[in-house]
Amino acid sequence: MLYLAIKAGLSGIIIAIVSEVAKRYPGFGALIASLPLVSMLGMIWLWRDKPDVPNMAAHVEATFWFVLPSLPMFLLMPWLLRHGTPFWMALAVGCGLTIGLYLAMVGVGPRFGLRL
Fold first, then answer.
1. How far is 34 from 25, CA to CA, in rounded Å?
2. Beta-carbon neighbour count of residue 69 at 10 Å?
3. Cβ distance 49 to 59 under 8 Å?
4. Rounded Cα distance, 60 and 53, in Å
5. Residue 15 and residue 29: Cα distance in Å, rounded?
6. What confidence tens digit (pLDDT) does each residue in 31-74 have?
7. What is the C-alpha separation between 58 and 43, in angstroms, rounded?
């Protein structure tokens, strides 16, 4: 249980740092947020829990493919916000787009040989 609390605490600290830095320096906060820290922590925790090379390789490769459908949200949301859409609505639409693209990736990816 302590191990789980440490993982959650470290992840929470990273999110808090990003939000605090972004208050003063939005670009630098975005840079920190764009780092694959969560992915790297996930890989570290996974490797510690299950040091299995094929499993890790499959996880890292699937992470790459799932990053791609999340990227359009980061273009859609600023466009919506700049055109008067309220933040929560823009966030919901961005998340909806991402979910739709994730579902498309899961449906179409295996047809192209992707192991998701």
1. 14
2. 19
3. no
4. 11
5. 10
6. 888 888 888 988 999 999 999 999 999 999 999 999 999 999 99
7. 11
Three-state secondary-structure class, residue 84: coil
Task: Kindly state the tokens that stand for 59.
Answer: 């996880």
> Could you give the 3-state DSSP secondary structure of residue 110?
helix
Calpha distance 51→43 (Å, rounded): 10
pLDDT score at 1 = 86
Over the Cα atoms of the chain, what is R_g? Answer: 17
User: What DSSP assignment string belongs to 11-75?
Assistant: HHHHHHHHHHHHHH-HHHHHHHHHSTHHHHHHHHHHHHH---HHHHHHHHHHHHHHHGGGTTHHH
Please say if the pLDDT value at position 14 is more than 90. no
Q: What is the pTM (predicted TM-score) of this model?
A: 0.78
